[in-house]
Amino acid sequence: MPALMTIQGMTHYFGGLRAVSNFGCAIQEGSIYGLIGPNGSGKTTIFNLITGIYKPTEGKILFDERDITAEKPYKIVQGGVARTFQNLRIFSNLTALDNIRIARQSSEKSSLASSILRTPGFLGEEKRIRKESLDLLDLMHLSDRAGEMAKNLPYGELRRLEIARALATNPKLILLDEPAAGMNPKEVEDLMSLIQRVRDQFKVTVFLIEHHMKVVMGICEYIKVIDFGETIAEGLPTVVGKDPKVLEAYLGKRGA
Q: What is the fold of 1-80+171-256?
């Protein structure tokens, strides 16, 4: 399969501190690609660079055969890249349904005039967006939460709501930043199945940051490991899980 995203020589400094060093990857279309490493190793910084929150000091980011290195975040989203965050970014005072409807609306083309005049075309669009948003809630097993204020949802459900909101933008690539954080063992099992189902049903590519090794080793098809901003290992899960550098840096013990 062709690479949907290619990153070449990406380096980033915060002042004099090098947070990411010569990072590169080729994420194949339709794959589940994992990025792991100790806390502070630069994983979320890489996501922030991909999504335009930061601009790389050096390097290039190519997505769907297009250079997005210097693009604004909203342009990157419109181009087909969505993400979730390590710290939830949900609209707490809106319902679960409205959280998704807002994201879905962002990809529509209705004019301001049609929304003010409530034209038949606009009303039809609104009806379709509501149905698609309800379908996403159903996929996340959140149908009964549609009218619930997001701030009242338990943590595991908020994680699923954030994934649904990212999917509402119709992405080709979805970046998941520690989606299993704070989940109990049953929720983790359900999350693993959900991510695979999302990939298959929506034909979306998944780029995953995760500390929960059961998730990483259970669903990722290729894994890259970084430490202090530098790549120390990459390959298939069965290979990476036995790498001495990974055992030392990530798991806190030396290989034999």
A: Rossmann fold (3.40.50)
